Amino acid sequence: MLKIDIHTHILPETLPDLGAGFVRIEPDAPGRARMTIDGKLFREIERNSWDPEKRVEECERDGVGVQVLSTVPVMFSYGAEPARALELARRLNDHIAGVQAERPSRFVGLGTIPMQDTRLAISELERCMGDLGLAGIQIGSNVNGANLDSLELFPIFEAAEQLGAAVFVHPWEMVGRERMARYWLPWLVGMPAETALAICSLIFGGVLERLPRLRIAFAHGGGAFPGTFGRIAHGFAVRPDLVAIANDVPPREYLRRIYVDSLVHDPLALRYLVDLMGAERIALGSDYPFPLGEEHPGALIASSGLPEATRERLLSGTALEWLGLPGERFGLS
Predict the structure, then answer these.
(1) Residue of 304, 297, 299, 307 lying closest to 4 (CA atoms)
(2) Residues with Cβ within 8 Å of residue 23, at least 6 apart in sequence
(3) DSSP 108-128
């Protein structure tokens, strides 16, 4: 079975100092580099974060045929001055496009755009889909605290629909992080909550209703959204005066309108996700190459006990549909 991993992150091997608040990447030791912000360590990364050859080697080890490449969320830089954020986005997008161009049957690229400026964001989205030949974009779950149903963001989603761009939403700048200083809670609790907030904003705000052809996927199995869906649907039903103020379509209607990756870390959780949303809405995603991801992409799907046809859909079929790409590009007839 072909494996297409829709959730992998890539960076350039180095990034110069672009100024205060921006990430800088510098070599640290053979096969290692340091990501710093204003001189403070953010994360140490290894060769597989930037080297396509190493990525192919590890893909071969795990039987992954295709990686969908996106930047690391800290690079979104939505709080930066828009023109500077665009400069960084263009660097990152050019890099991803170059990796894709060298191995188009192995890598598919998603760009990043400066969401804090609608005009610049749409312009870079158009460049990603046109000049660079990327499949879509990755965006954050909020933009400087503005939820994804904010009016100023709608033209970006509208442009994505018109251009046929796949949109991948990754949590960042997590809600409640001021109370999560310990235990790695921003990643363990904040990210799932942030993703649920993003999905609910798009549903209740009517964005998905107004853009029925928008192909949008969410990281980490949709975060806390699937596990709290019963409460969400019940709240909509019993208090429409509070919930259904911008969109009166029940949230259950959107379970077949959005996509999520498979990164839920537990076979019971994956089977529940399939029952709730259907295999046609779920695609393999590993969060490669970071430790909170799936060490061997596809292992959870393989061990899930799901039927073979369902596993095949999770491993490649849903990804192809979301990306809007033909299977022939990857050797499928």
Answers:
(1) 297
(2) 15, 35, 36, 37, 42, 74, 75
(3) EEEE---TTSHHHHHHHHHHH
Q: Where in the chain are the domains?
A: 4-323
Residue 89 has, within 13 A of its CA and on its CB side, a CA count of: 31
The 10s digit of each residue's pLDDT in 208-257 is 999 999 999 999 999 999 999 999 999 999 999 999 999 999 999 999 99
Sheet holding 32-37, edge to edge: 23-29, 32-37, 40-46
Sequence-ordered list of residues with C-beta below 8 angstroms from that of 55, at least 6 positions apart, any chain: 8, 10, 48, 67, 288, 289
Distance of CA 145 to the CA centre of its chain: 18
Which residues on adjacent β-strands are paired with residue 29?
32
300 contacts: CB under 8 Å, gap ≥ 6: 262, 264, 265, 266, 267, 270, 294
Angle at 227 between CA 278 and CA 214, to 5 degrees: 50
What does DSSP say about strands 215-218 and 259-261: parallel, antiparallel, or unpaired? parallel
DSSP letter assigned to residue 181: -
Amino acid found at 294: E
Could you check whether the bond before residue 289 is cis, i.e. omega within 30 degrees of 0?
A: yes
- Tell me which residue has tokens 């045929």: 65
> Are 172 and 76 in contact, with CB atoms under 8 Å apart?
yes
Q: Phi, psi at residue 161, to the nearest 5°?
A: -65, -45
| 246: DSSP letter | S
CA 61 vs CA 54, 55, 278, 329: distances in Å: 11, 10, 29, 22
Instruction: Give the number of other CB atoms < 10 A from CB of residue 146.
Output: 15
Chain segment 271-301, per-residue pLDDT in tens: 999 999 999 999 999 999 999 999 999 999 9
Q: Does the domain formed by 4-323 have CATH 3.30.1130.10?
A: no
